[in-house]
Structure formats: structure tokens, C-alpha cells
Amino acid sequence: MRGVFHLRDATLSLESLTFAVDGAQVRLGGTYGVRSERLDFRGQLRLRATVSQTQTGWKSLVLKVFDPLFRKDGAGTVLPITITGTSNEPKFGVDMKKAVFSR
Length: 103
Description:
Elements: E1 2-8, E2 11-21, E3 24-33, E4 38-47, H1 57-63, H2 67-70, E5 77-86, E6 90-94, H3 96-101
Antiparallel strand pairs: 1-2, 2-3, 3-4, 4-5, 5-6
């Protein structure tokens, strides 16, 4: 895990936070309210696998047509992600419009 952070007025600002596990990398930036425990992060999930490779059976076959839409910069799948909510109830999201139409 790597990143740059600043703490001011009980708000932790994270810039260029990156972490990786085998086959995936996450790049995030945003804020965390130390007192409020509110999360507001935006970033990118990069997978080595294509969208179709994340599924099995008939779902994998259907998703093969979408692989080119999500492939980018050498990654099998690139998804713009958000993490919002609180530390007790985080909400994870994917901006599908941005994923498909940002080229």
C-alpha cells in the first residue's frame, strides 16, 4: 500500500493511494472524516482478467462481447469506482457510464 496523506481539521485527505493483490490494483483519492467516519473516495480498479473471465458458464459467454469496452492501457478490465458512506456502512460503486464511454 502506498499513498500521500494530509490531516487537517479532522479530515484525512489521501492522494494517490494504491494497493494491489494478485491480479488486481486499486488507485484511489479522496477524504475520510476522522470524527464523522464519512468516506468519499474515487478511483480506478484495474484487473488483469477481462470482464468475461470474471464469470463462468453462460455469463462468461454473454460478457465476451463487452470485453473490448472495459479493456484499457494493458489491463483486462478497468472500472471507475467509488467508496462512500461511513466506515460502518461503506457503499461501493462502479460508474458504468464512465467505464464504457471514457476512451
